[in-house]
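Protocol step 4 of 5: obtain the predicted structure for the target chain.
Materials: sequence only (see below). No template structures provided, no constraints applied. The aim of this step is simply to have a reference model before the mutagenesis design in step 5. Sequence pasted as it appears in the construct record:
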Amino acid sequence: MSIIQANKLYKSFNTNSESSHTVLSDINFTVEKGECFTVIGPNGSGKSTLLSIMGLLIPPTKGQVIYKGKDITELSKSEKVKMRRNFSFVRQKPVVLDTSVYNNIAYGLKVRDFERREIEERVSAIIKKVGLKGFENQNARSLSGGEMQRVAIAMNFVLDPEIYFLDEMSANLDPKNVALLEEFINEIKGKKNKTIIMSTHDRMEAIKFSDRIAVLSDGKISQIGNVNDIFTSPKDEYAAVFVGYENIFSGIARYNKKLELTEIKIDNLALNAADRANGKVKALIKPESIGLSRKKARDTSYQNSIPAEIIEVRELGNTYHIFAKSGSSEFLTSITKLSFKDLQIELGSKIFLNFKATDIKIL
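Step 4 output (structure tokens):
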């Protein structure tokens, strides 16, 4: 059952000047009740603007936000204020009022006309949950950054609204508060009648919480799908990088019917891909899909085994990131410490990069 919908949304700023800038163009999607709908996209793609429009914080230039079958973009100012009581909005940076911790958390409940007893019960329960017991009478702006973050989290989650808007929710949180926020999200997801619309740069957040993901790039939605759709079949370069395709090469593709493979010419390299394509393409490969060997791979499952030279080595915990150059093309691969030791890799080492035709994603 649909709870909220974006219908042909556009947003431009400075529309009456030469510096007019369009941030969102022809945005369309529907969010189901009880769903966690995630918007991903690079900085400046319009994620925060989109969530602000959906949450009635700013108006669109054109288009509609449909809530439970009703266009809410044309409501009067007072009607919008009343409608926003069905929503809560968690921003990137904590925003607290210049008053006590208790009053901050109780504020949203008071303006929603909750009874005093219920306000006291809700505030008391969430203060304990976020670890602020004993801070009730302290001014929220006098707290540490981490404590202020917890006040902001409590202010939004105490409301128990129909829709939670979470804008880059963990971008500025410390690890303890990230864990606290994730606990709240899991609790919300357990309530089938609560809906989450969130934006994120964090790959693991998107995987853990999303039912569906929308990819927003240059102000337009390029793809909407479930987690598996986005992570296995990204439709644009940003989505591909987001899900881990860090090797990206431009080339010319030609499909070979006899071999049932696509040959991609990349400068002086020729790669074999399973996806069918012809003409100008981008070939994408995940670092973990590339194996290393001292000799050319004899395993016939590797349709690609190309000579390269190690140009950089980075140790990252239990893995190594290896940068290798083949001709004018640079590859990034990720290997275990054991493999690194077995291969006796060092700068200037001559190796082979091995990967399957199915490891190449073509855009």
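Step 4 remarks: The first strand starts at residue 2 and ends at 13. The chain has a mean pLDDT of 93.
Proceed to step 5.
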